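Chapter summary example.
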Amino acid sequence: MKSYNYRFNEASIVALSTDALYVSHQSVRLEIRLNMADLREALLFTAKIAEGAERFDDMLTFMESIVDLGNDLTDEERGLLSLACSEKTMSPIRSWRIIKAILSFESEESHATLANNYLNELADEIRNLTSQTISMICNKLLPNATTAENKAFYYKMAADYNRYRAEIEKPNSQERKEVGEKCLAGYAMASEAAKNLPAYDPVRLGINLNLSVLYSDILDDEKRACEIGREALRSSSAELENANEVHYSLALPIMSILRENLVKWE
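The structure predicted for these 266 residues follows.
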């Protein structure tokens, strides 16, 4: 029987198996027998609670357990997993960016050395987090993906985390070049999986948005970034009237970001 063990403050779910949920508080221990569907529902519910409480590490733990149960993720599960991974990874990335900016103004050598040491520690943390996420995508999510949209989403997600990794590597370094190539390959696979989705589909739009950001921010090719952004806007605008309400509401913010980026790059 496979078990998952958690520490969730002083009381909470402390273990999950393939057919049972165990809850403990102080000296009281409760065992709830669940079938697979109920277990998945329980994990999803606790993940939502963790999200509401802004306990994103716990949220990620519960969502990873859903992934471990097998089968493809629903749209809701996919979104919650993506959010949990993003919240855990973006926190050190935001810190890295702030310290990087501070360093650009720091003239005291001893202070710069201390800041650089801290920056390197954060970079190691980011490398570890991005590697864990990419491993989960490649080894667990993609093998279970059953729809073109999910495959495209997972390829895009893996490419995004490689892009985060590329950002922390030194400009013109071999490491940045190698990770940048992985990003391009990942977005290419995502685009291939999404080729039959409507141009306004938020996953397909997101691939083009993030690919354009890769060219601008990592590969230093704003001309190519603009070409990708303009084509994504042109094709999605032409088909947008056919979008359902959900796709329409999700597509508009992405298209807005594309327009803002084009103004900046052009």
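To summarize the output: Confidence is low (pLDDT under 50) at residues 1-19, 22-33.
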